[in-house]
Specification:
The structure is a single chain. By secondary structure, the protein is α/β, with parallel strands linked by helices. The protein has one domain: Metal-dependent hydrolases (TIM Barrel), CATH 3.20.20.140. 32% of the residues lie in helices and 17% in strands. The protein is built from eleven helices and 13 strands. It has an eight-stranded parallel beta sheet, sandwiched between helices. The protein has a three-stranded antiparallel beta sheet with strand order 1-10-13, with helices on one face. The structure holds (4S)-2,6-dioxohexahydropyrimidine-4-carboxylic acid and zinc ion.
């Protein structure tokens, strides 16, 4: 017997599509299930100015499968040299949907990010004035802060002071990984949202480190203790409008992951919706998947829910996902949840 649920087409509020051959390979895995995604700007060089976003959007549109119904929602990468007028014009024209804040050194290609928050204060003021949301990679980068504490430290020392200084700024806490993040988002009021990834709902730090190091489970922010994963599942499945899906699907070639200095990122675009159905069913909350993946994000961003549908079907036998995907430059490994999944998505 199969069980079926039909959802509005979901959105991915945090996605890495990369560029060139990689873009061509990974984009169809997102457009198969998703109608919109917030596109991360951490290319090399980063997407800093409106012209960069326009050119990147054109490259994404050129890589779209013929039958896709997908809209890339572009972002700019905030630097200490960002021109607020260029940003405001890009937002007013609809070219960009948000701006991304990377603390310098926090993650992949974040070297051009922000070191001194005072230097971007005028840009953030402008964003608050025009209503442009700020997507935040919430980790401090100081050597003396343990990597597992970096999110909590960021909330306390950077995010909270920033939001108190500019309460009108709309902020999305990206890919939260801790109970601290969940609690802060829950108490944050209407101008605060939080995305949660698929993989952080599934793995804790043991998955990365026990029984040998597993580079394909390494991402940033790094997965934390089991109690934090459980807090994330509770938040995602609660229906609370502040929490919505941002997969942070972040493909890296296998030889860049399986390396003495492996890159951070889990590639979840191909199987995310199946995995989420499993996680939500397991939590006894399948009925909340619609809010998390299809409704809460558009509500925060002031966009309509998508009109098309996606059907999830529970099969009697496990769904077979490809474990590897070929690109012209090498192989990618698809995120392996470590358990059988019976939900297919069409
Ligand atoms: O795991 C991650 N990978 N976290 C990020 O913040 C960046 C991303 C990437 O671009 O690879
Ligand atoms: Zn990311």
């Amino acid at each position: 017997m199969s069980t079926t649920i039909t959802l509005p087409r979901p959105d991915d509020w945090h996605l890495h599509l990369r560029d060139g051959a990689m873009l061509n390979t990974v984009l169809p895995h997102t457009t198969r299930h998703f109608d919109r995604a917030i596109i991360m700007p951490n290319l090399v060089p980063p997407v800093v100015r409106a012209d960069d976003a326009c050119a990147y959007r054109d490259r994404i549109l050129a890589a779209m499968p013929a039958d896709a119904t997908f809209t890339p929602l572009m972002t700019l990468y905030l630097t200490e040299d960002t021109d607020p007028e260029d940003l405001a014009a890009a937002y007013a024209s609809g070219l960009i949907t948000a701006v991304k804040l990377y603390p310098a050194g926090a993650t992949t290609n974040s070297a051009s990010g922000v070191r001194n928050f005072e230097k971007v204060r005028h840009v953030l003021d402008k964003m608050a004035e025009i209503g442009c949301p700020l997507c935040v990679h919430g980790e401090v980068t100081h050597d003396d802060i343990d990597i597992f504490d970096r999110e909590a430290a960021f909330i306390e020392t950077v995010l909270d002071p920033l939001r108190r200084a500019i309460p009108e700024l709309r902020v999305i806490m990206e890919h939260i990984t801790t109970k601290n993040g969940v609690d802060y988002a829950r108490a944050g009021g209407d101008n605060l949202g939080a995305t949660i990834t698929t993989h952080h709902l599934i793995i804790n730090r043991n998955h990365i480190l026990v029984g040998g190091i597993k580079p394909h489970y390494y991402c940033l922010p790094v997965a934390k203790r089991e109690e934090h994963r459980q807090a994330l599942v509770k938040a995602a499945t609660s229906g609370d409008a502040r929490f919505f899906l941002g997969t942070d699907s972040a493909p890296h070639l296998d030889h860049h992951k399986e390396s003495a200095c492996g890159c951070a990122g889990c590639f979840t675009a191909p199987n995310t919706m199946s995995l989420l159905a499993h996680v939500f069913e397991d939590a006894g909350a399948l009925d909340q998947l619609r809010a998390f993946a299809c409704e809460n994000g558009p509500a925060f961003y002031g966009l309509p829910v998508n009109t098309g549908t996606l059907t999830l079907t529970k099969q009697d036998t496990p769904v077979k996902f490809p474990s590897k995907i070929e690109t012209p430059e090498g192989q990618l490994t698809v995120f392996d949840p470590g358990f059988d999944v019976f939900w297919s998505a069409e």
